[in-house]
Amino acid sequence: MYMNAGYLHNSLVDFKDKTKPLVVGSCGTYRLYTRPKLPTYRPRGRIDFQLLYVAAGKAHFFFNDEDVTVTAGHMVLYLPKEMQRYVYYGVDQTEVFWVHFTGSDVKNILRKYGIPLTGHVFYTGQFPEYQNLFQKMIQELQLCRPHYEEVLALHLRQLLILISRQLQGGHKTADYVQNEMEAAIRHFSENYNTDIVIDEYAQSMHRSTAWFIRSFKQYTGMTPMQYIISVRIANAQRLLGTLDYNVTEVASIVGYDNPLYFSRLFKKQTGISPTEYRKNL
What pTM does this model have? Predict the structure, then answer.
């Protein structure tokens, strides 16, 4: 069994805090390999909120004495004072992340992001960024660096926003497509100023160009090349604001050897030329 957790002020006691809109009290993870069983039973619940994410395997939750099997890609939300009863089995190779939180505006925040306050279980997909955010919260709780309570609240909001995107429309894609599109976004963001050929990238992922472009547009709302151009122009705007580079140098830095073409494209995207943009700044 593997476990890792962090607790605010190193306290294992659940608490209410109405001084801030959102406060993270604790966060952790369990992975079962050899331990046969890990049960939790809180007949009176807790006085804070709890969100659990089943990252792998499955877990068994009991709602109104009914055994509900919750598989990977689902989350479970408990409100304060709700009875909590669930169990993980080693044979299921369960991996679960959890976070406890409180605050003066928690219910409104959850409603804002479309997180269901009833029903307990909802599907959000298996998304690596979920795990990254849980790990970041665990680390902040363990290191207690300056302003870590604020950082914790920001990470939890990031998590809720990602969940919201999965629950509300456009990003309800199959997990494997989602992971491929996120990988493409990272690749394009890191290499935006190089000569990216979409056909070659699609082939490297063993996908047809048509499938890749269609899937990318469904996921982001723009084609791969539109996304790359948007990143280039956004970075060009930042560079133009520094006054350290002339327009030709800015064009080269963001990936355009022809400054005239860059200027035309910049004006098409922003409505003004690079020179006018710099003067306005």
Answer: 0.68
